[in-house]
Amino acid sequence: MPAWVGPVADYLAGGLRETALLALVSIAASLLVGILLGALLTLPGKPVRAVVRAYVEIWRGLPIIITLFLIFFVLPIIGVRVNTFIAAAIGLSLWGSANVAEVVRGAVQSVPRGQAEAAAALGFSWTGRMRHVLLPQAARRALPPLIGLVVNLTQQTSLAAVIGLVDILEASQRSIERLTLSGGSTHAVPILGAVLAVFFVICLPLTMLSRWYERRLH
């Protein structure tokens, strides 16, 4: 085994841990906030829906990389400073929660209207209808696109490298630069191939699960 493999593997492993933690935090925050916002988008009151709709359209419409720049470089101008991990987690969660909200809204509204009317006739409040009737039925419809969003969000963690987070992609780039400076050979193909394999192993099973579940629903 070449002498450079061991140190590079250790460095990439540290980057992989950072990537995995960032993905888990972002996915959890996106699901928690997004499900709540998606439910609020079905409220009968227009003011609340308008505020939530503005949130969704803003963070869905902005490229993630712009959001990361705003959080990491613009917020310090007004005295709000966050480290690279928190900035990346917030940026990814804003984008993810906005997309989850839209998925949940569509899934809830796809439930036959008679279900909500029957629950209302039984005396359920909006919260009760949402908790006991609509969301359980909407979950089956929302699951395939939500799995797709999880895959997409995992892939988008690589954008955190632009603000200096040492994730697996940034670790691979720094390893290539160090090997180039020290030995004159980049070894870029095996290093980037390893990064490609990691993302492939993580994302392919989730993509296959989403397709299988979608076929099962149909």
Automatic annotation (TrEMBL):
Residues 16-210 form the ABC transmembrane type-1 domain. It is a multi-pass membrane protein. Keywords: Amino-acid transport, Cell membrane, Membrane, Transmembrane, Transmembrane helix, Transport. It holds the Pfam family BPD_transp_1. Its main location: membrane. It comes from the Bacteria. It is found in: Cell membrane. Gene3D superfamilies: MetI-like. The chain crosses the membrane at residues 20-41, 62-79, 146-169, 189-209. InterPro entries: AA_ABC_transptr_permease_3TM, ArtM/GltK/GlnP/TcyL/YhdX-like, MetI-like, MetI-like_sf. Belongs to the binding-protein-dependent transport system permease family. HisMQ subfamily. This is Amino acid ABC transporter permease. It comes from Streptomyces lannensis.
